[in-house]
Amino acid sequence: MSAEQRTWRQSTTHCPYCALQCSTVLSGERGGVAVRPSADFPVNRGGLCQKGWTAPAVLGAPDRLLTPLVRGADGELAPAGWDEALDLVAGQLREIRARHGADAVAVFGGGGLTNEKAYTLGKFARVALGTSQIDYNGRFCMSSAAAATTAAFGLDRGLPFPVTDLDEAEVILLAGANPAETMPPLMRHLEGADLVVVDPRRTRTAERAALHLQPAPGTDLALSLGLLHLAVTEGLVDTEYVDARTVGFDAAWESCLAWWPERVEEVTGVPADDLRTAVRMLGGTRRAYVLTGRGAEQHSKGSDTVAAFVNLALALGLPGRAGSGFGTLTGQGNGQGGREMGQKADQLPGYRSLTDPADRAHVAAVWGVDADTLPGPGRSAYELLDALGGAGGPRALLVFGSNPVVSAPRAAHVTERLEGLDLLVVADFVPSETAALADVVLPVAQWAEEEGTLTSLEGRVLRRRAHLSPPPGVRTDLEVLHALAVRLGQSADRFPVRPDEVFDELRRASAGGRADYSGISYARLDAGEALHWPCPADGDGDGGNGDGSSGGSGHPGTPRPFLDRFAHPDGRARFAALEHRPPAREPDEDFPLYGTTGRVPAQYQSGAQTRRVPELVAAAPEAVVEMHPDTARRFGLADGQLAEIGSAHGTARARVRLTRTVRADTVFVPFHFPGAARANLFTGDALDPRSRMPEFKVSAVRVRPAGERG
After folding, report:
1. Are strands 23-27 and 10-14 parallel, antiparallel or unpaired?
2. What is the percent of the chain where pLDDT is above 90?
3. SS3 579
4. pLDDT digit string (tens) for 130-165?
5. How many whole angstroms separate alpha carbon 511 and alpha carbon 534?
6. Where is average pLDDT lowest: 62-76, 248-262, 362-376, 527-541?
7. How far is 693 from 305, CA to CA, in rounded Å?
8. How many CA atoms lie within 13 A of 332 on its CB side?
9. CA-to-CA distance for 698 and 222, rounded, in angstroms?
10. Burial classification of residue 301, based on how many CB atoms lie within 10 Å of its CB (0-12 exposed, 13-18 middle, 19 or more buried)
C-alpha cells in the first residue's frame, strides 16, 4: 500500500463516548487520525459534539499504556512482560480462591465495553473464576430507569423508539436530563417541540425550554406525583387507553391524591401555576414524550421517581403509540448493551435472570457447563466496592473499563477499600486514578483499535470497526481474558479472542431472552441494516440466509416494541402506587445546602480520557462549584476563590463560579476531576432499595473558603 493510500484510508465507526453513538469516519494513520461525522446516520446527521470532534486525540495520549506494569517490592509500578504479568495475576487468583473461596475474587466492568467484552467478562467471572461478585459502573447510570421500566413495561429499552421519532414531537418533558450539554447532537431532534425541563439548574437545555420547572434537589418524586394528580383533576387522562392497555391505575391515583398543586409547590418550590401549565402542555397533544435522565434517577428513590413519570405518561396514553412515548436517555456509550450481556450482578446474557432455572440452563448449555456450577447473584456495584478487603468481602478485584476512584460515591472510602486489597488488577489504555493504585496494570486496545458491537440508547446494535492496529505490546480485552482463563484451567476454545466469534456465541446465549440478539449478525450490520433488539433468529438460526450473509432475509428487528402490546404476559403496562420520601439527608444547621453533581460539555465520566485532550482541558480545566451570588455572599466566597464543599461523608475542593442559573439553596459540582476535586468525596452511600443506585444527585453540604493550596 502506498503512503498516499495509507493516509487516506477511511473507516466508518462510532464515537467512543455517549449512548447516542454518533457515526464517524476516521482517516489517516496513528499520530494523524482525523475524524468527521457521517452525514447519513440518522442520529447525528452530520453533527458531533466537542468531545466527538477531538476523540482521536486520546489515541495519541502521551502517557498511553504500552506495556504491562507490576508493582515491585519497592512499592513502585515497573514494566513487565505479558507472561510475567499474567502468570502473576493467575497465580495470585488461584491462591486467593484456595484460601478464601471463589467469592474472594471480584470483577468490576464498565458501560463503555463492547457487547462482546461485556459478555465475555460476565462469562469469565462465572465460569473461569466461579465468583458471584461481578457488577459494573452502569449501576451508577441506568439502574433506576431499568428497574422502573422493567416493572412498568416488562422490558428495559432506554428509548423504545428511534431517536428520529422525536422530530415530530410537539411537546417533550425532560426530567433531569440536559442533552444540550451531555449529548448535543440529540438537540437536532428536539428543535420542533416545546420543551418542559425539570432541573434544579437553569441548564443550556432549560434555557431553550418553553417551561422550566426548577425543583429543590431530591423532590422530583413529589413533583411527578403532583403532575399525575393534575392530569386527573384537569380531565386529561386517556381513559380508553388506560382501560385497554394498563393495570393498576386506581392504586396509582390513590397514592397521589394528597399531592395537590399547592402542596407540591410547598415541597418542591415549583409554582402551582407552572405545574398546571406543564400538564396542560403534555395533555394538549397526542404527539408528546416524557423522557428521564440521571437527574431524576440518581437518588435513593430513583426507581420510584422514574416510575412516577411512567405513571404520568401512561395516564396520558403516550407509551406504545406511534408519535408519542416514554423513554430514558441512556448515558454511557454501551450503557444499553452493557446491562444486557451479563456483567451485572443479577443477570445473564440476553437480559436473562441468574435466579431463573430455565435462564440458567439455557446459558449454561451455550457455555458448555453444568447450570448448577453457575453462582447466584452477587453484590451491586457500591456494595461490592464497599465490601472489598473487609470481613467476608473480596480480597482481589479485576477492573475493566472503569475508574471507581473518581466515579464511585464516598470516593475516599472506596479508595481505602481498593488500597486494602491483596490484589488489584486494572486493564486500561491510560493510567487512570484507579490504575495508579493497582498491583498489576494491563494495557489494552482503544475504541479505534478494536472490532465489536455496541447498542445505542434506542436499542440499535451498531458495528465498531478498527481503524488502527493496537500499538506493539498492547492486547485487546478479549485476549487478556482468554489468556487468564487458560491459565486458570479453562480450555482455549471456551474463550475466543475474535469479536465475531464471541458475537456468534452471544447470539446463541441471548436467543429467546428479553434482549434477543440471535437474528443479528456482523454480515447484516455490515450490509447497513438498522437492527434494533429484540431481533430473534429466523428458521435457519443465523438471522440471514443460512450462510451468514444478509440477502435481505431474517427478522427485521424491533424499533418500536410496544406498539401492539407491552412485554408483560398479559400485554398490559403497569402503573405503580408510590409514596414520596425525602433524600437520605436533608440540609440542616451543620450542612445547610443541597449539593448536586453532574457533567460539563467538555468532559466525560471520570475524565480519564477527556482530561488528556488539550482542547477539552482548555475548555474545562478544573473542577468548579457553581453557586448563586447570594449564596456566595452568605458564606463569604467570591468568584474564582477556592472553596471546600463538605458533607458528613467527606470534602471536595473546587473553584467558585458565580451564576444565577442555580437555586440559592443549591451548589453544583461536576464529577470529572481527580484528587481533592472529586465531587464524589462528598456524595453518600444511600442506595435505592430496588436498583441499588447511589444518591449522587443530592447531598447535604456546607461551603466555606479553602486555603489556596494548589
Report:
1. antiparallel
2. 95
3. coil
4. 999 999 999 999 999 999 999 999 999 999 999 999
5. 9
6. 527-541
7. 12
8. 28
9. 15
10. buried
The per-residue pLDDT for range 477-504, each reduced to its tens digit, is: 999 999 999 999 999 999 999 999 999 9
Structural contact between residues 701 and 649, judged by C-beta atoms closer than 8 angstroms: no
Strand-pairing partners, residue 13, are 24
| Selection from 299, 156, 172, 231 nearest residue 585 by Cα | 299
The label of the residue with cell 467478562 reads 121
Q: What is the 8-class DSSP label of residue 175?
A: E
Report the pLDDT value the prediction gives residue 553, as an integer from 0 to 100. Answer: 65
Within 103-228, strands assigned E span 105-109, 134-136, 171-175, 194-198, 211-213
Cα distances (angstroms) measured from residue 284 to each of 206, 290, 318, 516, 517? 21, 14, 12, 37, 38
465 touches 23 (CB < 8 A): no
Separation between Cα atoms, residue 566 and residue 42, nearest integer Å = 26
Q: Residue 410 and residue 481: Cα distance in Å, rounded?
A: 30
Report pLDDT for 220.
98
> Which CA distances in Å does 547 have to 80, 208, 284, 543, 551?
44, 50, 51, 9, 10
Those residues with Cβ within 8 angstroms of residue 480's Cβ, 6 or more apart along the chain or in another chain: 86, 427, 442, 444
Say if CB 67 and CB 626 are below 8 A apart: no
Over 111-139, what HEC string results?
CCCCHHHHHHHHHHHHHHHCCCCEEEHHH
Say whether pLDDT at 36 is over 70.
yes
* Packing angle, helices 499-510 and 357-367, rounded to 10: 150
The position carrying cell 440518581 is 298
Q: What does 502-568 look like in DSSP terms, one character per residue?
A: HHHHHHHHHTTSSS--TT--HHHHHTT---BS-----TTSSSSSSSS--TT-S----SSTTSS--SS
Per-residue pLDDT band at 684 (split at 50, 70, 90): very high
Residues 6+ apart with CB under 8 A from 650: 410, 411, 412, 413, 681, 682
Segment 362-384, tens digit of pLDDT: 999 999 999 999 999 999 999 99
- The predicted model gives 423-434 an average pLDDT of 98
Residues 6+ apart with CB under 8 A from 163: 20, 42, 43, 186, 189, 457, 458
Residue 538: predicted pLDDT:
80
* Mean pLDDT estimate for the chain: 95
CB 470 within 8 A of CB 455: no
Please tell me whether the peptide bond between 534 and the residue prior to it is cis, using omega within 30 degrees of 0: yes
Q: Which residue has the cell 464516598?
A: 410
Q: What is the pLDDT of residues 511-563, one digit of tens each?
A: 999 999 999 999 999 999 999 999 999 854 444 433 333 334 699 999 999 99
